[in-house]
Amino acid sequence: MQKIGLLFSGQGSEVAGMGLDLYQNQPTYRAVIDQASQVTGLDLPAIMQTPELLAQTQYAQPAIVAMSVGIAQLLAENNVPITAAAGLSLGEYSALIANQTFSMAGGLPLVATRGRLMQQAIEHQAGQMVALIDPNVAQVQQICAAVQAQGEWVAIANVNSPKQIVVGGTPNGIQQFTTELNRLAPTTKCLSLKVSGAFHTQLFAETAQAFKPVIEQTSQNQGLYPVISNTTQQPFELATLTETLVQQMAHATHFSANLQFLAQQGIDVLIEVGPGKTLSKFARQTIPTVERFNIGNQKQLTSVLAALKEVH
């Protein structure tokens, strides 16, 4: 019997209209979104249809998590057995709600607060991020250190796959970094990301500490299945859950290592839930022999459930 793992989308995957057909056709999914709206005080169906709102961290984060949890609930409703899960950055919260470490009533307001705090941090300290394709990691680290020595902050923020890492920092720091990268490694592809903050860098250290008491006050339970941490690269543990989530906000994520961990546990099917298919691309680059599916709409849900039924 195949072992199924879930991958939960991170911020940046949001798109206007996401989940609309699921909301219209799936009562279980609609109930999740409506409950999420109630406990956060946000009109999530409206937010999910409005590009200007989804462009704001404070709205994008609860919207993505609610959608992802709703899809996970549809899989549970169809008796799809889940062995483990991983999420990229924000996606860890989706995973921790889906596996019942956090309840909907506790977890969604927690995510909404995280989004608000990060939005405030962005408004206080602008940041930028760039994705590097096929980089020399040691060289990237050396350039970051050189820029930091000049008084600007820049650092590796995401290790997504063997072929992609992301660097984040202050606008001046990123400008200096890209100039030096172009000089030393002109063949390395460098893409600006459409974000307004340098997530998972020390620019969010104060925000992470402000968020800590909010996590501590949110009820935590033993989950139904393991969720692999971006930060420790091991399954979350209740005893250290708060501290690990605090560290995640201001330290690099290691999603590539999470994928490798899942493969080592015998996971041979991965289902990415939520908007987009970025994580499936990372999975293809990291563990290419594992079968991959995406569920972000009604057509994909129907197709994946049919495919799984054939296997099982």
From TrEMBL:
Catalysed transformations (reactions) = holo-[ACP] + malonyl-CoA = malonyl-[ACP] + CoA
Q: Could you tell me the EC number(s) of this protein?
A: 2.3.1.39
Domain Malonyl-CoA:ACP transacylase (MAT): from-to ranges: 7-310
Gene Ontology BP, a term: fatty acid biosynthetic process
- Molecular functions per Gene Ontology: [acyl-carrier-protein] S-malonyltransferase activity
Which Gene3D superfamilies does the UniProt record give? Malonyl-CoA ACP transacylase, ACP-binding, Malonyl-Coenzyme A Acyl Carrier Protein, domain 2
Q: Which InterPro entries match?
A: Ac_transferase_dom_sf, Acyl_transferase_dom, Acyl_Trfase/lysoPLipase, Mal-CoA-ACP_Trans/PKS_FabD, Malonyl_CoA-ACP_transAc, Malonyl_transacylase_ACP-bd
The record's top EC class is: transferase
Q: Which residues form the active site?
A: S89, H200
What the entry lists under SUPFAM superfamilies is as follows: FabD/lysophospholipase-like, Probable ACP-binding domain of malonyl-CoA ACP transacylase
Task: Classify the source by domain of life.
Answer: Bacteria
Q: Which UniProt keywords apply?
A: Acyltransferase, Transferase
Record the organism: Latilactobacillus fuchuensis
Q: What is this protein called?
A: Malonyl CoA-acyl carrier protein transacylase
Q: Which family does it belong to?
A: Belongs to the fabD family.
